[in-house]
Specification:
The protein has 153 residues and is an alpha+beta fold. The chain has a single domain, classed as Aminopeptidase. It has a four-stranded antiparallel sheet, with helices on both faces. Helix 1 crosses helix 2.
């Protein structure tokens, strides 16, 4: 727990937040809630990797992020990937995304990975670049995604 009451847990250990995570991912990136729930259940059913982390404050869901092998449809060989970083709109600007990212990077490092990738829409490029991510490809696919990489300690 951080000084402001923020807690980070693996979704496997906080199943009460499964519905909130599925809902946010569906609304932000997917077409069908059932597809999100099925994909998320596969993550939860895995032993250690992939994984989904949940941020809560006072037991209330405030954000999520997933570590997965591949998340870039146009580049399926690029991975592992940080995916589906989400912070509730009213909680943004308080450092929650940074805490979630730091936790994902630590988990990737513990799994022995040397680098991690992510894809981001153009309006988020600056967010990732300001936090040490390097763009390796731009304007990928119909969403004109940037692909970023970051070396792990």
């Amino acid at each position: 727990m951080t000084s402001d009451g923020l807690e980070i847990a693996d979704l496997r250990d906080a199943p009460e937040h499964f519905g909130a995570v599925a809902d946010r991912l569906w609304r932000a990136w997917w077409d069908h809630l059932a597809d999100v729930e099925a994909a998320l259940q596969e993550v939860v059913d895995s032993e250690e990797f992939p994984f989904t982390l949940v941020a809560t404050r006072d037991g209330r869901f405030v954000g999520t992020v997933t570590g997965i092998q591949s998340d870039i449809d146009e580049r399926p060989d690029v991975g592992p990937c940080l995916a589906a970083l989400w912070v509730e709109p009213e909680e943004r600007g308080q450092g929650i995304a940074e805490v979630l990212v730091a936790n994902v990077l630590a988990r990737f490092s513990a799994h022995g990975f040397e680098r991690v990738y992510l894809s981001a829409k153009p309006h988020l490029h600056g967010f990732y670049q300001a936090r040490g991510w390097t763009m390796v490809e731009n304007e990928v696919g119909v969403d004109r995604l940037g692909i970023f990489v970051r070396a792990l300690p």
